[in-house]
Structures are given as C-alpha cells and as structure tokens.
Amino acid sequence: SDPTVPLVMFCAGSGLAPMRGFLQERALQKQAGREVTKSLLFFGCRAPEEDYLYSDSNLKEWAQLGVVELKPAFSRSSGESDDCKYVQDRIWKDRTEVSKAFLAGGKFYLCGSGKIATEVKKKLIAIIQEARQLDEAAATVAFAEILNGRFATDVFE
C-alpha cells in the first residue's frame, strides 16, 4: 500500500501475472504524481525472442518510467541475461541490490512453481549467510525471522 516501500519480485512463466498487477498499480501512482520507489523484478523464461512477455509493452514502459528494474534470466540464452540461466542465478548476481531493498524495508513476493520457490529461498538464505557470516542452519533461521511478514508466496505445480 505504500509505494515508497521497494518490492522485490520473483517469478517465471505465468507467475508474471500478479507481478504485472503490482507494477501497473505503481505505474499509475507514479503517473499521478506520487513518489514511487523502484521495484526489482526477477523473472525467468527461455529466450527473449521466444517468451519474454510484455518486453515491448508494459514492462518496457514501466522500466522507462522508473517503476521497475528488470532482472531477466534466459535459460536458453543466458548470454543475453548477464550469463544468468535461472532466476536464482540472477538473484545471486544482483544480491547487493536485493540486500539494499531488504534494508530499505522491501517486501518480497514470489509466484511460480515449487521448484523455483525452493531455489529462490535457497539463494535468499545464501545472501543472509554471506552478509551475516552464518552457517546455513543459522541463516535459515534468520531467513524465517527477518522475512516474517515481508515474504509472500503463491506456489503451484
């Protein structure tokens, strides 16, 4: 509800739909003159020319407006996504930005398959592990504590 709180969104395939809803709302708020913090959208698809949905319309427009920073991962064209094949690879590559969003009070949203949910969670735990110099077990506990109320998921098979 507060457009100054950063959103960090993770999805692949049809999981993009609810993220578009968030971004559309924020774009309208920005166009109405409200202050809107840039969100991060991590999403995966096969290749930019195959299934990079809305890349030439909404997503491009919202990126130009400053509402979102797009973080694609192309499994069959990773060279076109900073050598990131999957969403979790992109999260790790851009972990500094993920950490900044968290420290700014960011909310985290994930929509996708159980596999992507598992892999995203592993990378978020690894970021905590690295930042706090914890072992994996302690980082897992910290993940549950610090993202309580700030991490929402919609997982499907």
TrEMBL record:
Q: Where would I find the Oxidoreductase FAD/NAD(P)-binding domain in this sequence?
A: 9-121
Key words, A-Z: FAD, Flavoprotein
| GO CC terms of this entry | cytosol
Superkingdom is: Eukaryota
MF GO annotations: flavin adenine dinucleotide binding; FMN binding; NADPH-hemoprotein reductase activity
Q: What InterPro entries would the database entry show? A: Flavoprot_Pyr_Nucl_cyt_Rdtase, FNR_nucleotide-bd, OxRdtase_FAD/NAD-bd
* Entry cofactors: FAD
Q: Which PANTHER family match?
A: BIFUNCTIONAL CYTOCHROME P450_NADPH--P450 REDUCTASE (PTHR19384:SF127), NITRIC OXIDE SYNTHASE-RELATED (PTHR19384)
Q: What is the protein's name according to its record?
A: Oxidoreductase FAD/NAD(P)-binding domain-containing protein
